[in-house]
Each structure stands twice: as structure tokens, then as C-alpha cells.
Amino acid sequence: MNQELIAACGLELYQAMQTRRALRPLTERYADISIDDAYHISLAFLQHRLDAGERVVGKKIGLTSKAVQNMLKVDQPDFGFLTDKMVFNQGQDVPVSEMLMQPRAEGEVAFILKKDLLGPGVTAADVLAATEAVMPCFEIVDSRIENWQIKIQDTVADNASCGVLLLGDTAVSPRKVDLATCGMVVEKNGSVISTGAGAAALGSPVNCVAWLANTLGRFGISLKAGEIILSGALVPLESVQAGDVMSVSVGGIGSASVRFT
After folding, report:
1. CA torsion, ordered 76, 188, 19, 165, to nearest 10 deg
2. Whether 241 contacts 260, CB under 8 Å
3. Angle at Cα 107 formed by Cα 94 and Cα 134, nearest 5°?
4. ∠ at Cα 200 (164, 151), nearest 5°?
5. Which of 81, 115, 118, 113 is nearest to 222 (CA)?
6. Which of 95, 125, 145, 217 is deepest in the core (most CB within 10 A)?
7. pTM of this prediction?
8. Do residues 37 and 156 touch, judged by C-beta distance below 8 A?
9. Who's near 167: CB < 8 A, 6+ residues apart?
10. Residues 120-130: pLDDT tens digits?
11. Which residues, 6+ apart, have CB-to-CB distance to 135 below 8 Å?
């Protein structure tokens, strides 16, 4: 794809987010779109957010679990950027009816970095050494693509289908929990809807962060000290709407809860 078309797609996605009107899949309209093209579209999309006053506060990896890959019919992880406008904290309601179009929530482990990570060559040990703390969180994903009819290029271009996120109010050292075996329980409206474990995400959330650092490193982009890094879902996505209440508990880390409005 040429630069003019990449810029046009980035603007189209930004306008879709602003107006909450979904688009036909990019992969239907541009048969030759590559993952690298999609990444550059996502940067163009992000730039519009930055021009509007938002700032990058972290990055995310998505589609790490087989359950989510199978649900969305994709076969590899993706990645995107987090801005300050996306972040909610424990105790805050999340206004999905005002901000999002097709929201789906997933329980995750968030990493808070104390050192930069720049790939290639980042290992799981490097991730642990660079992490200040891990926290329970919800990512509420959203697609600017009609009916979630996405291929990997669509979701990469769409900033990895980022919507918003909510951080819990507990933070622990990653050395105090076995992130590969930690269990996760997700409840919706008082009923348990899913369970998972750290190994569901590329064997461990730590491996996910290493993958992200190495993948972004190909483009000269680092994970930076102080950033929030979302390591991917350990459970299937769950559609949500105003009025729903969800909680997630992660063994050895803590819990987070959210009310959607």
C-alpha cells in the first residue's frame, strides 16, 4: 500500500471511532494489505489521537490465547498502543455506551515497567527484571470493523481492537507469583463465566511481553519505563453492555471489578 492509502485508512479508522460507526473490513477492500501495512495504518490512526491531545501510556498484546484466536478466527497475536484516555481505575464506572461500539471484556495481567525493553533478543528473564509490578485488569476491546469480521491485518490496523482498560487496586512483584500457573476467575453479574491460567497466553504472560518487545523492536519501538503493558487475555472474550458488572480474580495478584454504564 502507498503512503496516501495508509494515511486515508488511518483517518477512516479514527473517524469511525469518533462517530461510533463501524467500517467494512480493510481486508475485503484491499486484498494485498500486509501486516506491515496494517501496522503503519495503526500508527496513522494513533497519530490522530495524539494530535487530539491524547498521550501514549503503554502498549498491549492481544490474541494470545487459543480461545480468543479461535473465537475471532485469527492465528497469531497482535499489538497496539494505549493512551491516557483509555485508562480507568478501580471504582470508576466505564461508559461503554458512550465510548465504544462492540465492547467485549477480557481478564488480563498488566505489567508496570521500571526499565525500557527494546527487542530483538528480549527474554522472559529480561521482562521480569524490567517489571516493577503486575496488576489484575480488564481490557474492554472494541472493533471499528463491522461485526468483528476481522483478519489479523484488520485488527492490527485498528490498534489491536483497543477500547479501554480498567486497572485493579493491587500490585505485586512479578517474583512473588508464578505467572505461568496463576489461576484466573471471571464473574459477570454474579455468576462465574470463565476460568483460565497464565499458561493460556503463550505459556505465560511473561512470554507475551517478551514477544511484544521483540515484535515492536523490529520497528525501533521500545516498551518504556513507567508504561502499562497488557499481556493478553487468559479467558475468552465476553460481550458487555451498560448495566453489566464484572470482576476478575488472579491468584497471587488480586482482583478488579468494573461496572459498565
Report:
1. -60
2. yes
3. 100
4. 60
5. 118
6. 145
7. 0.93
8. no
9. 87, 88, 89, 90, 110, 135, 136, 137, 228, 256
10. 999 999 999 99
11. 109, 110, 112, 167, 168, 170, 171, 172, 253, 254, 256
